[in-house]
Design brief:
single chain, about 500 residues, alpha+beta, Acetylcholine Binding Protein, Chain: A, 4-stranded antiparallel beta sheet, rod-shaped, ion transport, ion channel, disulfide bond, ligand-gated ion channel, transmembrane helix
C-alpha cells in the first residue's frame, strides 16, 4: 500500500521525535546516586560533543554579540606620581551560545543552570589600560539559560593607567578610561554592545561606596570601531569614569595654616618700624612657614610633568614673606638714627614728604609733623638760650677790649695800668661754653636729619604696606575664584 506525501512527512517527524527522545534519555541516563538528578542529566546533555574552543555559532558568518556592563563599587587609590588608578568594579557580560540550548520540558522545567567557566567558550575581552593584575576573586561559574544566553558576572580589581591632571588639586576632577575590546577577534566575529542604555549607566551609583576621598560623578560610555591596518576592524567599548576629590581635609590641613601665617605677616606691619621687634617677628614667621612646607611636602601630589597650583601658591607665599622681610630691613635702615647720615635729598622730600601723603591719603602724617614740630620747638628754645649765652660772651669780649684800650692809654701817659678784677679762669670757661655750644648745634643738625629720614621711612612703610596688601588680596581673590569655579564645575 502506498502512502500519500502528507502521511509520509508525518511518519518521518514522529520517528525523528522518538529518536531525539531516545538520544536525550541516553545522554541523560545515569546510574547510582545520580539516577534522578535533573541537573546532572542536563549537564551531560550540554557537555556531550561541546567544543569550547570553537566560537558558538552554527553559521560562521554570524557575529557573536557580547553585551557588557560596568558598575563602579569603590575607588581604592589614585597614584598621581605613577599615573595609576585602582578601582573595584562589578563587570557583567552576556552572549548567546547556540550550542547550549535545551527544552525545559525535557528536564523538569529547568530554565537556567550554572556551568563551570572552564567548560564553555568565553570571549577574549580585555581592558586595554591594564598595568597590573589586581586581587580579584575567582568566580568559576557562569549562568546559562535554556535559550543559550550565557551570563558571566564577576567583580574585578582594576589597576589601570590614567592621565591624572593634578593642577587643580585639591579641587581636581579626574577622568579615567576603561576600554573593553576583543584582543584577537575582529568585529566580524565578536561585536560589543551595552546591556543598559547610556543614560542609565551614567547615573547609576547604587553600589558605589561613597565614604572615601573620592566621589563618583558619573560613568560615560562610548562605542567605536577602529582598524589597525585598514583591513580588519575591531569593536571597542570605552567607559569614562569621572571622579572628584573631596577637598575638606586638604583645605583644613594645608590652606588654613598658610592663610593664618600670611595674616600674621600683615599684622606684623603694625609694629613700629624704628623698633627691632618687627625684623625678629618676620624672621620667625619665615622660619615657621619653612617648617610648614617641609611638613606638607609629603601630602602634595607630585608628578614629573606638572605642579599643582597649591604648590605654586605656597611658593608665592614664601616669596611674599621674603619680600616683606626685605622691606622691613630697608625701612629699619632708613629710620635708624645715625650721626653720619647725609641730609635727605630735595627730590625725596618733595616726592615722599609732600606729594605721596596727598596722593595716597596717608593720615598718619600729622602725627609725624606734630612730633617734629614739638622737637623743633625744643630746638628753637635751645637756640634762644644759646643765643643769650653768645650775647653775654660778646658783651664780655667787648668789655675786655675796652679795658685793654684804657690800659694802653694809661701807659701812654706814664701811669701804671689798673688791675683787671676778672680772674683768668673765666677765659677758659668761656672757651669751654663756646665748644659745648658748637657740639650741641651739630648734634641738633644730625637729629634733624635723622627725624627727616624717620618721616621718610614712615611714609615709605605705609606705601609699601599698601602695595603688599593689595598684591596679597588680589592673589587671594584670584586663587579663591579659580578654586570656587573648579569645585562647582
Amino acid at each position: 500500500m502506498r502512502l500519500s506525501p502528507a502521511w509520509t512527512t508525518l511518519v518521518f517527524l514522529l520517528i525523528q521525535g522518538a529518536s531525539n527522545a531516545c538520544t536525550v534519555k541516553k545522554l541523560g541516563s545515569s546510574t547510582g546516586r545520580f539516577a534522578n538528578a535533573t541537573l546532572v542529566r542536563l549537564s551531560d546533555f550540554l557537555s556531550a560533543g561541546y567544543k569550547k574552543g570553537v566560537r558558538p555559532v552554527k553559521d560562521w558568518r554570524t557575529s557573536t554579540i557580547v553585551a557588557i556592563d560596568l558598575m563602579v563599587y569603590s575607588i581604592l587609590s589614585v597614584d598621581e606620581k605613577n599615573q595609576v588608578l585602582t578601582t573595584y568594579v562589578w563587570y557583567r557580560q552576556s552572549w548567546t551560545d547556540e550550542f547550549l540550548v535545551w527544552n525545559p520540558e525535557d528536564f523538569d522545567e529547568v530554565k537556567q543552570v550554572s556551568i563551570p567557566t572552564a567548560n564553555v567558550w568565553v570571549p577574549d575581552i580585555l581592558i586595554n589600560e591594564f598595568v597590573d593584575v589586581g586581587k580579584s576573586p575567582d568566580i568559576p561559574y557562569v549562568y546559562v539559560t535554556h535559550d543559550g544566553l550565557v551570563r558571566n558576572y564577576k567583580p574585578i580589581q582594576v589597576v589601570t593607567a590614567c592621565t591624572l591632571n593634578i593642577y587643580n588639586f585639591p579641587f581636581d576632577v579626574q577622568k579615567c578610561s576603561l576600554t573593553f575590546q576583543s584582543w584577537l577577534h575582529t568585529i566580524d566575529d565578536i561585536n560589543i554592545t551595552l546591556m543598559r542604555s547610556p543614560e542609565e549607566l551614567r547615573e547609576d551609583k547604587s553600589v558605589f561606596m561613597n565614604q572615601g576621598e573620592w566621589e563618583l560623578l558619573h560613568v560615560l560610555s562610548n562605542y567605536k570601531s577602529f582598524s589597525v591596518d585598514d583591513d580588519d576592524y575591531y569593536a571597542e567599548m570605552k567607559f569614562h569614569v569621572v571622579i572628584r576629590r573631596r577637598p575638606l581635609f586638604y583645605t583644613v590641613n594645608l590652606l588654613l595654616p598658610s592663610i593664618f601665617l600670611m595674616v600674621m605677616d600683615i599684622v606684623g606691619f603694625y609694629l613700629p618700624p624704628d623698633s627691632g621687634e618687627r625684623v625678629s617677628f618676620k624672621i620667625t614667621l619665615l622660619l615657621g612657614y619653612s617648617v610648614f612646607l617641609i611638613i606638607v611636602s609629603d601630602t602634595l601630589p607630585a608628578t614629573a610633568i606638572g605642579t599643582p597650583l597649591i604648590g605654586v601658591y605656597f611658593v608665592v607665599c614664601m616669596a611674599l614673606l621674603v619680600i616683606s622681610l626685605t622691606e622691613t630691613v630697608l625701612i629699619v635702615r632708613l629710620v635708624h638714627k645715625q650721626d653720619l647720615q647725609p641730609p635727605v635729598p630735595h627730590w625725596v622730600k618733595y616726592l615722599v614728604l609732600e606729594r605721596a601723603p596727598v596722593l595716597f591719603c596717608i593720615h598718619k602724617k600729622h602725627r609725624l609733623c606734630s612730633r617734629l614740630s614739638s622737637e623743633a620747638s625744643d630746638l628753637e628754645h635751645y637756640k634762644e638760650n644759646s643765643y643769650g649765652t653768645a650775647q653775654c660772651t660778646l658783651h664780655h669780649t667787648c668789655e675786655i677790649g675796652q679795658r685793654h684800650d684804657r690800659e694802653a692809654g694809661l701807659l701812654g701817659l706814664g701811669l701804671p695800668p689798673s688791675r683787671d678784677p676778672t680772674p683768668p679762669v673765666m677765659d677758659n670757661i668761656l672757651h669751654e661754653v663756646t665748644a659745648i655750644r658748637h657740639f650741641l648745634e651739630k648734634r641738633d643738625r644730625c637729629r634733624e636729619v635723622a627725624k627727616e629720614w624717620l618721616q621718610v621711612g614712615y611714609v615709605l612703610d605705609v606705601l609699601l604696606f599698601r602695595v603688599y596688601l593689595v598684591a596679597m588680596v588680589a592673589y587671594s581673590i584670584t586663587l579663591g575664584t579659580l578654586w570656587s569655579v573648579w569645585q562647582v564645575a
